[in-house]
Structure formats: C-alpha cells, structure tokens
Amino acid sequence: MTSTPRIPKAEITGLYGYMLKRFSRKMFGDVPEPAEVMWHNRAVLSSSLGFGRKAQKWDELDPNLKTFANMAVAALVGCSWCLDLGYFHAHHTGLDEAKASEVPRWRESPVFTSLERDVMEYAEAMSQTPLTVTDEMCAHLLDQLGAPAMVELTASVAFANMSTRSNAALGIEAQGFSKACQLPLAEPSAGYATPA
Fold it and tell me: Mean pLDDT throughout 13-22?
C-alpha cells in the first residue's frame, strides 16, 4: 500500500537517520511513513518517539486492553495507518490477534468481554469533541481496573489521539504492516471516520 501524504516524505539521512531506518526495518520490515514525514522536524519526531518508547514501558494496564483502546481511537478518528500498526503490534507481541482484528467493529462483534467493551467505549468517549466521558463511566472502570491502570488507560488514549489525529491530518495511510497477521482486519463500523 502506498499513500501520498499531505506533506511530502523527507529523505532520512545522517547517523541518526541511518539508525532510525535500521531499527525500523528490523522492527517493522519498513520505515514508517510518519517518521519520513516528521523527519522535516526532528525535534517533533524525536519527542514523539521518545514518549512512545516510555509509554510502552507502562505496565499497570493489561496490554490487550491498551491495544484495544488505542485501536478503537484509530478506528474512530479514521487513521488507517494506526489501525494497521496496532494490529501488527498485537500480532508480534503475542496479544489476542483474533480480538484485535475485530476492534474496528467492536460494538457489533461478539468476541469482546464487557470490560473490553467498557475500555473501548471510554477510549471513544475521550476521543469525542467535546468529550463524552461521564462520572459513571469512570467510576465503573475504576472499580474494575484500579487507579494505576485507569491513569495509564487515560494517558495511553490521550497519546493515541495525538498520533492518530496527526497521521490522519497529514494524509498518512496504512502501509500494509498487518498483512503479516493471520486474520484480515475488520472494516470499521458505519458511522466511523473514513480513513485518511
């Protein structure tokens, strides 16, 4: 899959660029298009990558729940690149690939538990403008997850919104990372944003 981002990709050069390309190809098989676009402003790229690496180390929230929440944000916002990478991540980290493939249509899919649905509903509520998060929604999740995991979920969804909205606004589309997965990624439900 190839896309034409709204800001042309930059040529990644220099030692830092070499290391970025080598690491990316080892981890994903290709250089992610967001990195090529953000290479125009290395401070933004470096900060985004740095925060992303730190966020991956958070461990209070079940990784399946975190992945489902982030993918629900991507489906809602319409970031096909983020959905593609989220599913690839689930596949390569041993998460529940069958469920991850269903996230774009989680409301209709019978595979999710009530907790997983609550987490994705919260992720979507955080992603609306204005937010549609309620006291009841938070209290219910807090009872199920505990405060440390609830804080992590909230921060993770906030970071997912930054990433998905940036990629969608820049016109960055799926790169085909999810082709490595056994199941096809479900199409988003009606009413979701059309991917960039």
Answer: 96
Tell me the residue length of the chain: 196
| pTM (predicted TM-score) | 0.91
Residue 124 C-alpha from the chain's centroid:
13
CA dihedral 73, 74, 79, 84 (to 10 degrees): 170
Minimal CA–CA distance to 86: which of 185, 159, 167? Answer: 185
The 3 state secondary structure assigned to 110-129 is CCCCHHHHHHHHHHHHHHCC
Do 95 and 131 belong to one domain?
Answer: yes
Whose tokens are 């999710």? That residue is: 112
Do 23 and 84 lie in one domain? The reply is: no
How many domains does one find in the chain? Answer: 2
Assess whether 126 and 152 both reside in one domain. yes
Torsion-angle region of residue 64: left (phi > 0), alpha (psi -120 to 50) or beta? alpha
Question: Which residues form the domain of 43?
Answer: 9-57
Residue 150 lies in a domain: yes
100-144 pLDDT, tens digit per residue, is 999 999 999 999 999 999 999 999 999 999 999 999 999 999 999
